[in-house]
Design goal:
single chain; Beta-Lactamase; disordered N terminus; alpha+beta; elongated; about 40% helix; 5-stranded antiparallel beta sheet
């Protein structure tokens, strides 16, 4: 049967499924309101005075997972998160006591799958309304909004925490350089007690006049190139004193790429610069000392030794025994002084980089050193073993030669009276780092002395052998110059193993 709408004179036909927008007296019909409710995005709930759910709109299924009939006659408070329940009950009971009051409340409601959804609800007491006879509550799902708010809050706390523990002072300025924010470290940097002493002032006022143009250029380049820039400059403290600051400037930009603010990271490097200057001065003094020794002392020492030897040869048979002993003592002293000067020069030069770490074949360097020590090795009857081909490393060839020569000479010198003297050289490569080892079976080193043997001008010779106390300190200084480390492992009577490291060559 086909349903048709009767047209009457003066009446306009209504399209649709027969739902009339108006009742007999012009008011919206029940079916009209039901259609609106079925399509609402929020959940509309009708509660009785005890909080039992008498009705839920179909949207409850989409938002909370329940079919409307599953919630009928269920107490709504049973679905509210325990932490939110007291507040929700308070609002509900106040609404029951005072009809006409409309209040809003945010809380968590249990989803059918067991999760919690955040709802924002507003209700009105219509218990006295003969048509409704209940409390009408409209609930909006704000879970996504709450999640975003929580993420923003956590992000803010993380960034605030990072700022508070950062060793750098953080200053935010507008594009004209006016300070809008300072971190606690910035207050310490400038010797201030409160943000009010800095915020609102132009950052350029805290820079020494001779560096202000440098800062202006730094700002302009940062804004123009969209890249962070750094510089060292002198800054003023509140009390008028100066400090050396390392400044890094960057920008925060909007969605269109236009700069919004300038962010400055500043670190007080006054003490570091002082130490660098002090170290530079000490190095210059050491170089001057080494230069004096090499040029002012080495030449006269050589002359003394030469004249003493000439006298011995010229009148070898005509001089008394006492005179000969004196001349021999002069020659020995001059020779020892010459050795000391040469060792001092090696020590001074070992810490300086001349050509930078290059690819060096460690096996070739060791072969050259062994040729120089061949006679001494044979005279002492030492068995010298090199394990596997030694790898190439990044170091200076001259310094690597110094290291091998001093370590092998040290092993030969402190071999002692062992029955079968032996020296072994090997290397191991791990994660791009080469660890060399020179191991002997000599007298060994007491544990109490192992931390001091690399210090210059200290001698520890339990076996009575001579030495200047510079060889091992030269080794440490040379290895450190290319970024390596040096250490020893030893037990008295069981020999010693000296280790040093270098980066493997590609």
């Amino acid at each position: 049967m086909e349903l048709r709408e009767e047209r009457k004179p003066g009446k306009r036909a209504v399209k649709g499924a027969g739902v009339e927008p108006r009742g007999r007296r012009g008011a919206p019909s029940e079916e009209f309101f039901r259609s609106l409710i079925d399509y609402t995005l929020d959940v509309i709930t009708v509660l009785d005075e005890r909080g039992r759910m008498l009705y839920n709109t179909p949207s409850v299924t989409r938002i909370l997972g329940y079919e409307p009939q599953e919630l009928e006659n269920r107490v709504c408070f049973d679905f509210v998160h325990p932490d939110d329940l007291p507040r929700v009950r308070e609002v509900f009971e106040r609404g029951i006591r005072e009809p006409g009051i409309t209040e809003s409340v945010e809380y968590r409601f249990r989803h059918k799958d067991g999760s919690w959804r955040f709802l924002e609800s507003v209700g009105e007491n219509l218990l006295d309304n003969p048509v409704v006879r209940g409390v009408v509550v409209s609930s909006h799902d704000i879970t996504d909004r709450k999640r975003v708010e929580e993420e923003m809050r956590e992000s803010e706390e993380i960034h605030r925490g990072l700022v508070s523990i950062s060793p750098d002072a953080i200053i935010i300025c507008d594009l004209q350089g006016t300070i809008t924010y300072v971190s606690p470290q910035a207050l310490r940097l400038y010797g201030c007690q409160s943000e009010a002493e800095l915020v609102g002032r132009n950052a350029i006022h805290f820079i020494a006049p001779e560096d202000r143009e440098k800062v202006r250029t730094l700002y302009q380049m940062t804004l123009r190139e969209n890249a962070g820039r750094s510089a060292e400059l002198t800054a003023f403290r509140k009390d008028g004193s100066r400090s050396v600051v390392e400044l890094h400037v960057t920008t925060i930009r909007d969605s269109e790429g236009k700069p919004k603010v300038l962010v400055c990271f500043a670190r007080d490097i006054t003490e570091r610069k002082r130490m660098e200057l002090e170290l530079q001065n000490r190095n210059e003094e050491l170089e001057a000392f080494a230069h004096t020794i090499s040029h002012d002392l080495l030449t006269p020492v050589a002359i003394v030794e030469g004249y003493a030897k000439a006298a011995l040869e010229a009148d070898a048979e005509g001089r008394s025994e006492a005179e000969r002993e004196c001349l021999e003592a002069i020659a020995r002293g001059a020779r020892r002084m010459s050795e000391l000067i040469s060792s001092l020069l090696q020590y001074a030069q070992a810490g300086h980089t001349h050509e930078g770490p290059l690819r060096v074949d460690a096996g070739e360097v060791l072969t050259e050193v062994l040729m120089d020590l061949e006679e001494e090795v044979q005279n002492k009857g030492v068995s010298l073993v090199v394990r596997d081909p030694l790898p190439a490393v990044r170091a200076e060839a001259v310094k690597l030669r110094q290291v091998f020569y001093n370590l092998l000479s040290n092993a030969l010198k402190h071999m002692g009276e062992v029955e079968k003297p032996r020296i072994e050289v090997n290397a191991a490569v791990r994660e791009g780092m080469v660890t060399f080892c020179v191991r002997d079976n000599g007298v060994g080193i007491p544990e109490s002395l192992q931390g001091q043997i690399f210090e210059p001008f200290k001698r520890f010779n339990p076996d009575g052998t001579g030495g200047l106390g510079i060889g091992l300190s030269t080794v440490k200084r040379a290895v450190r110059s290319w970024g390596g480390e040096t250490w020893v492992e030893s037990k008295p009577g069981e020999g010693a193993s000296f280790f040093f490291t270098a980066l493997a060559a590609e």
